[in-house]
Amino acid sequence: MVDSPWNAWKVALAVVLLAGICISACAHAPRRKVPGSELRRLVISALALYAVGGAASLTRHPALAGLAYAAGIAVCALAAWLSRGRDAEDPPGGGGGSTPMDEPPPPEPDGAPAFDWTAFEREFRTFAARRRQETSGRS
Q1: 86-109: per-residue pLDDT in tens?
Q2: How many other CB atoms are there within 10 angstroms of residue 77's CB atom?
Q3: Secondary-structure percent of the chain, ordered helix, strand, coil, rounded to 5
Q4: Are 42 and 78 a contacting pair, CB within 8 Å?
Q5: Are 51 and 75 in contact (CB under 8 A)?
Q6: Measured at the alpha carbon of residue 61, what is the angle toward residues 57 and 66, in degrees to the nearest 5?
Q7: How far is residue 77's CA from residue 139's CA, in Å, rounded to a whole number?
Q8: Are 2 and 8 in contact (CB under 8 A)?
Q9: What is the pLDDT of residues 9-48, one digit of tens each?
Q10: What is the per-residue pLDDT across 66-80, written as a single tens digit (0 to 9) for each?
C-alpha cells in the first residue's frame, strides 16, 4: 500500500487536513463574530502561504512546499470556521434584515392572528384572471 515513509507522511497529512476542513464546516460556530478585518488578514496570510508553497515547488523543495500548503489550508479552514460566528443582534436565520414574511401577523384580541379574507379573495381573483389571460394568449 504505502511504499515509503515519505508517502505515509503525505497520507497522514492529507487525513489531518481533511479532518480540519470537516471540523471547520461541521463544528459549532463560534459564539462571537470575528471582525471582517481579522478574517481578511487570515485569508491574505493563507494566500501568502500558498505563494510560498508555489515558490518552494518551483525550486524543488517538496517538504517545504507541502508544509506551506498544509499551513495555508489550515489557516483557510480556521477562517471559514471563524466566519460562521454571530453577534447577539444577528437574526437566528443568519440573514441580513427582516422581511415582512419573517414577522408574524399581529394577534387579534382573542390571541388568533388576524387575516383579511376579503383582501385575499380580491387579490386571488386578480391573479386568476391574469393567469387565464396568459394561458389563453399562449394557445
Answers
A1: 766 655 555 555 555 566 655 666
A2: 20
A3: 65, 0, 35
A4: yes
A5: no
A6: 70
A7: 55
A8: yes
A9: 788 888 988 998 888 888 888 888 888 888 899 999 999 9
A10: 899 999 999 999 888
